[in-house]
Design a protein that fits this description.
The complex is a heterodimer of chains A (about 300) and B (about 270).
Chain A: E1 7-16, E2 19-29, E3 34-38, H1 45-52, E4 60-65, E5 80-83, H2 95-106, H3 111-119, H4 135-147, E6 153-156, H5 165-180, E7 184-189, H6 192-195, E8 201-206, E9 209-215, H7 216-222, E10 226-230, H8 234-244, E11 247-249, E12 256-260, H9 264-274, E13 280-284, H10 287-297
Parallel strand pairs in A: 3-7, 3-8, 5-6, 6-7
Antiparallel strand pairs in A: 1-2, 1-4, 8-9, 10-12, 10-13, 11-12
Chain B: H1 2-13, H2 17-47, H3 53-56, H4 60-68, H5 70-74, H6 77-92, H7 96-102, H8 106-142, H9 152-178, H10 182-206, H11 210-214, H12 218-225, H13 230-233, H14 242-262
Classes of the chains: A alpha/beta (about 300), B mainly alpha (about 270).
The structure holds adenosine-5'-diphosphate and magnesium ion (MG).
The site of magnesium ion has 4 residues of chain A, from α1.
């Protein structure tokens, strides 16, 4: 089988009438890791996942799982387990009946329905009608549905919504376990802090466009204290940074030094001692959530056609 | 396809709707058959008096057949609703998303719905028809009237009544595929079957050309399958041959499903 479980989104766009829900979005999701798919409400996460699953037709671009479009995968529930936001159940069906709807199409015995209920801790509610379930229970049932076919790729849209802190902790461990088994796990959320302790990689989008994609440690590195020093004396500034062994981030302008892991007072004192003229000296400590907001805010408003991107 | 069929069948029978509708149908049909059976026997009694023979001009076994096939005339709304809601409820409860995740081939999905609804339609046809036969025959027996249950032609009508009702469930799936709003489905089904079509048939029958057109209306086609009906026997409209009726009804079902396939089932599911 060729499917290694890598998810590839390639120049994907979707317009709903005048609304550009997803705009030239490209990213990749690797197996064996939990990837957070992040962005504020309306960023286009659900639309992207629906295109990946063949439910929404892209305006342009492609989205594939293991190199195949969802519709080309034979017995797709054995390869991909997906739970979309607003998990959808008939309120009059019991949890077990709901799962047994899909066992023939997954190609597993009906007993598998009981097994996955056990996995998500819902066995006690197996014969209860879904109409009476709490949001948290529905989330667990949706997760159970995705597991029926023991798929190597999991796509979960806001799975932590409606879970209590205990449930979130459970989900965290569960997703880590699935990824440790070599599966591809893509989890969307509109708050970074919710998945911060779960994910290995992040894909951040805003207004349908990619804002940032990297591993979580790389993102965290960006969130460290940053000092920005601006000097007209390019050579002097470079020498000072060199001599002080500060970490300098890439900044387009040589007069600007973005420095990590150092505070403004230290930089100011060193520059004064070295006689390097400073026109600006600022520091900021955005924290991970602050950085998230900053990244999300940095995406151009639609219509201002992203030349910079 | 086999898996999709099993899944669709399970969807139909794991909610309460189907057996509530089935129960309603059985009770309603038994009641109607008993009432009409009684009415028919009164008519026969009158018909046996000299002078009115000419006016009635109906073989008594044909009259009795209308009792046994009353479900095709007045009960088809039940399989029709079951078929239509099999699609509409997927959109109402957004189960269409997991449904399409399990079977992304939308033509296979629609076909599975058509076939599985047809099978459940057979159940509705059997129960509805047998309820009418049971109640009708019981009343006729009580009134010392012939039941004609020992005649092959009677049983042929009964079997064709079952077939007609099964086809109605197929029409339901087609209709639900075109109109997916559950409330609209219920309103339109009730309005069309209980009011629009009866009035249309009545009005068309008044014109010279209309009777031919009226025979192709779905309700008339259904009655044609069962080989006669309350309406036709009372002279309101003429009917097609049984097999023509079956083909017309099937064409409505499959045609509507095909329209649904290229409209509803082509749209983005969001
Ligand atoms: N069916 C639809 N018709 C019109 N606009 C839609 C539709 N679905 C989503 N959108 C719009 O697309 C944008 C992205 O929505 P969505 O993908 O649901 O974002 P997210 O899941 O990140 O909150 C929003 O502006 C939303 O209003
Ligand atoms: Mg969403």
């Amino acid at each position: 089988m060729t499917t290694d479980g890598t998810i590839l989104v390639d120049h994907l766009s979707k317009s709903f009438g005048p609304v550009r829900a997803v705009d030239d979005l490209s990213f990749q999701v690797a197996p064996g890791r939990v990837t957070g798919f992040l962005g504020p409400n309306g960023a286009g996460k659900t639309t992207t996942l629906r295109m990946l699953l063949g439910l929404v037709r892209p305006t342009s671009g492609t989205a594939t799982i293991g190199g195949q479009a969802y519709g080309e995968i034979r017995r797709p529930l054995r390869t991909v387990g997906a739970a979309l936001e607003a998990a959808s159940f008939h309120p009059g069906r019991t949890a077990l009946d709901h799962l047994r709807l899909y066992t023939p199409q997954v190609g597993v015995p009906d007993a598998r329905a009981g097994e996955v209920l056990e996995l998500v801790g819902l066995s006690a509610a197996a014969d209860r009608r879904v109409g009476g379930f709490s949001l948290g229970m529905r989330q667990r049932l949706a997760l159970a549905t995705t597991l029926l076919g023991d798929p190597r790729v999991l796509l979960l849209d806001e799975p932590a919504n409606g879970l209590d802190p205990e449930g979130i902790r459970w989900l965290r461990g569960f997703l880590r376990m699935l990824a440790a088994e070599g599966r591809t796990v893509l989890v969307s959320s509109h708050v970074l802090s919710e998945v911060e302790q779960t994910v290995d990689d992040v894909v951040i989008i805003a207004r349908g466009r990619l804002a940032h994609a990297s591993s979580l440690p790389d993102l965290a590195r960006m969130a460290r204290v940053q000092v920005r020093a601006v000097s007209p004396d390019v050579a002097g500034l470079a020498a000072l940074v060199e001599r002080s062994a500060w970490t300098r981030a890439e900044a387009g302008d040589p007069r600007v030094a973005e420095l990590w892991d150092v505070d403004a007072a230290t930089v100011g004192a060193a520059a004064f001692a070295a006689g390097v003229e400073l026109h600006e000296l600022t520091s900021r400590d955005p924290g991970l959530e602050g950085l998230f907001l900053q990244l999300v805010g940095s995406v151009d408003a639609p219509g201002t056609d992203g030349m910079a991107a | 396809m086999r898996a999709a069929l099993v899944t669709e069948y399970r969807k139909l029978v794991t909610t309460r709707l189907w057996w509530i509708l089935l129960l309603c149908m059985a009770v309603y049909m038994a009641f109607l058959a008993a009432a009409v059976g009684w009415g028919v026997s009164q008519g026969n009694a009158m018909g046996s008096s000299p002078g009115s023979d000419e006016q009635l001009a109906l073989a008594p076994d044909a009259v009795v057949r209308t009792v046994y096939t009353i479900a095709v005339t007045f009960g088809y709304v039940f399989p029709l609703l079951v078929g239509a809601l099999a699609v509409a409820s997927e959109f109402r409860h957004q189960t269409i998303t997991p449904t399409l995740l399990a079977e992304p081939r939308r033509t296979v999905l629609v076909s599975a719905k058509v076939i599985s609804a047809g099978v459940l339609g057979l159940v509705f046809g059997l129960v509805g028809t047998l309820a009418a036969v049971g109640a009708g025959a019981a009343v006729l027996t009580l009134l010392d009237q012939p039941t004609f249950l020992d005649e092959a032609s009677t049983w042929r009508s009964i079997a064709l009544s079952v077939l007609a009702l099964a086809l109605w469930a197929v029409v339901g799936v087609g209709f639900g595929s075109v109109l997916t709003n559950q409330v609209a489905v219920i309103v339109v089904v009730l309005a069309f079957t209980q009011f629009v079509e009866p009035v249309l048939r009545f009005v068309l029958a008044l014109t010279s050309w209309g009777a031919d057109v009226a025979a192709y209306l779905p309700g008339a086609a259904g009655e044609a399958v069962a080989g006669g009906s309350f309406f036709s026997e009372s002279g309101v409209s003429s009917l097609l041959e049984w097999w023509q009726g079956a083909l017309v009804l099937l064409a409505y079902g499959v045609g509507l499903a095909a329209i649904g396939r290229v409209t509803t089932f082509r749209r983005d599911i969001t």
